[in-house]
Amino acid sequence: MTNILPIYGYGQPVLKRVGTDIPEGYPELEDLIAAMWNTMRNAKGVGLAAPQIGRSIRLFLVDSTPMYEENEKEKGLQKVFINAKILEESGDPWSYEEGCLSIPQVTGDVERRPRIRIRYMDEQFVEHEEEFDGIEARIIQHEYDHIEGRLFTELLKPVRRRMIKRKLENIRKGKVKVSYPMRFAMK
């Protein structure tokens, strides 16, 4: 079993950096991706980006299958995105409550466009350009924000941001209980 990595919590500088492109032949990429899948599943997440495990690179995973009923799992998406670039977002923005493994016990309604077109590489560095919509588009946009150094809390309405200020400070200080390993900005 590949190891489970600590998830970097709110306040860690790596979460605010724009990730760098990953060159073909990046050392131990396959092992890193396997560890990220295990880490995400252990934390019961539906996405995980490399900055969340302390790497400022353009890599994220998406697994939307937990968002579907047991008999609809085949509708879900399980995919690795390397060096992704969102080319277009379209449709009328819709609001949905989001959370983040790096910001445990904090949620908020975020408006995002329902359709995206994205270019990315898979694990074999084969380039793809695809369109996604609905919940898959939303998860991809959330994880993409991580590789752009942006957190979902920045997209919340000002009133909600003020309401969660103390919770965010507690996460920064490590004053939060979670069921998965985390690394905090201050201890």
Bulk shape = globular
- Our count of domains comes out at 1
Mean pLDDT: 95
Fraction in beta strands: 25-35%
Over the alpha carbons, how many angstroms does the gyration radius reach? Answer: 16 Å
Largest sheet: 5 strands, antiparallel
Decide which structural class fits the backbone. alpha+beta
CATH topology: Peptide Deformylase
Counting DSSP H or I runs of 4 or more residues, the number of helices is 4
How many extended strands? 9
Q: Going across the major beta sheet, what is the strand order?
A: 2-3-4-7-8
Low-confidence stretches: none
- What name goes with the CATH superfamily? Peptide deformylase
CATH class call:
Alpha Beta
What is the correct CATH architecture? Alpha-Beta Complex
